[in-house]
Structure to design on (241 residues):
């Protein structure tokens, strides 16, 4: 199953896309609201074979701009929590970690370790699972949020969610370069989680875990794959519809 997302056009004017089913973590940096609106509007038009709600931590204004339907999403509004359907970040992250655990049990029972394979068998599966996304606007807000366990909950979603079809998208107007270091400084147990997953030495940079999409004021789009030092491709941004 592919989840194509158009991210811009090349120098020949041809639309270029990425497959979100193959990207466990996507970081969108240096972005403006109008560019994000196009991307998340496209995300909501993805055709799933079965209904699936995504998870959002963002301001009410951002969700309105992104045209997020509260009836089809798990939403925590950072600025107006009473207007969302999830009252706080902690509850939303717990809800998602519980869903990861539920999916792990389902796949283990079916003796299937590859989520993509499970998803292709949805027609015959009693428990129909498809890809879900957690979208966090201004990820640095979680870094300074209390309780400190928020960072650990988020890291567990990043590390274990992809195995069961749950992927993460961060947005921000600054670079994510020091994100992982900040998370570890606040909650050192995150290093243990990384070592459990990757061994020693554990990853030191967040860009070793995910791909980065950089949207510039000059209307250019840089796309960098996980673990690469250089930008992989350069696109001209445009209408994502």
């Amino acid at each position: 199953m592919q989840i194509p997302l158009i991210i811009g056009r090349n120098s020949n004017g041809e639309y270029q896309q990425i497959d979100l089913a193959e990207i466990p973590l996507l970081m969108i940096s240096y972005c403006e609201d109008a560019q994000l609106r196009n991307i998340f509007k496209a995300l909501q038009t993805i055709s799933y074979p079965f209904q699936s709600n995504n998870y959002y931590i963002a301001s009410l204004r951002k969700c309105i701009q992104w045209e997020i339907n509260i009836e089809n999403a798990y939403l925590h509004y950072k600025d107006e929590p009473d207007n969302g359907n999830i009252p706080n970040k902690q509850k939303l992250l717990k809800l998602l970690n519980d869903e990861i655990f539920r999916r792990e049990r389902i796949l283990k029972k079916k003796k299937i370790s590859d989520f993509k394979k499970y998803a292709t068998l949805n027609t015959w599966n009693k428990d129909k699972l498809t890809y879900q996304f957690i979208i966090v606007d201004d990820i640095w807000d979680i870094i300074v949020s209390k309780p400190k366990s928020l960072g650990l909950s988020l890291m567990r979603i990043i590390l274990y969610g992809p195995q069961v079809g749950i992927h993460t998208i961060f947005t921000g107007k600054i670079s994510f370069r020091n994100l992982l270091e900040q998370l570890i400084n606040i909650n050192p147990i995150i290093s243990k989680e990384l070592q459990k997953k990757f061994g020693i030495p554990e990853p030191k940079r967040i860009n070793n875990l995910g791909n980065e999409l950089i949207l510039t004021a000059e209307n250019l789009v840089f796309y960098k794959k996980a673990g690469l030092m250089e930008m992989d491709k350069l696109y001209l941004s445009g209408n994502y519809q």
